[in-house]
Amino acid sequence: MNQTSVTFSSSFPTALNQYNLQDEDARSNFDVPRRFVASAVWEIPFWRENKSSFVRNVIAGWKVAPIVTIQDGFRVAESVNGSLPTSATIQLADGFKISSTPSNGPNGSGGSFRVPFEPRNAFPLPALENTDLRLAKQFRFKERYKVDFIAEAFNLFNHTLVFGASSNQFNLVRTTATAGQCNAGVSGTCSQLTFTPVTAGSFLNPTADQSTLYRERQMQLAVRFSF
User: Residue 53: phi, psi to the nearest 5?
Assistant: First the structure.
């Protein structure tokens, strides 16, 4: 007996940047477009008619039940560490000054801290590959007594399952601009905001390797007596 299912789907988030809704149309954090699950129960048919009572009663008759799950990894919402200055004065070439009090976020809109020049959730986590296995056998004594022996293994091959990663991709840094980078007619010094990449290897570095459903390999044994 076996059962197999394949899922193809897509998931999109609600808009967070209230000043540019079009750029918010992208994959959501929970987008998993492909998911494959297969399960089976197989009673091993060998040695049932063996002449040895030990082979018939102890070795034969085991049931094997694997569950295999393969799916695309979840998405990472790449982010920026830093915001626009809480107050700023912009001096135009004709001497006119504009005072501004932006909200938080890298674009001052008060929206999310995602990278504004990249699509949302452009980076997927590694795919999930998990195998669970169950072995079971029933031993009978006379007519009314039964003993069920059960052995189970979760994440049988002990794969590393990544469910979270560092999302900070850039730091928003305010530096003093050179004279050539300032607008013409601006007196004194001016500043510029720079998206500086984080330390190599820190972006997408795994931070969570388990969830409520999947984690490191675990094994358990159970015995059930029925009468």
Answer: -65, -30
CB 38 within 8 A of CB 4: yes
Strand partners, 172: 195
pLDDT tens across 149-160, in order?
999 999 999 988
Q: Specify which residues 131 forms β-bridges with.
A: 68
Please give the Cα distance from 134 to 16 (Å, whole number): 45
Give the 3-state DSSP-derived string for 26-48, with helices as H, strands as E and coil as C: CCCCCCCCEEEEEEECEECCCCC
Domain limits, the chain: 1-75+119-160+207-227, 79-113+168-202
Fill in the DSSP letter of residue 60: T
Q: Which residue has the higher pLDDT, 122 or 181?
A: 122
Give 109: exposed, middle or buried? Use CB within 10 Å, 0-12, 13-18, 19+: middle
- Residue 158: DSSP 8-state: -
| Tens-place pLDDT, residues 200-223 | 888 988 888 777 778 889 999 999
pTM for the full model? 0.70
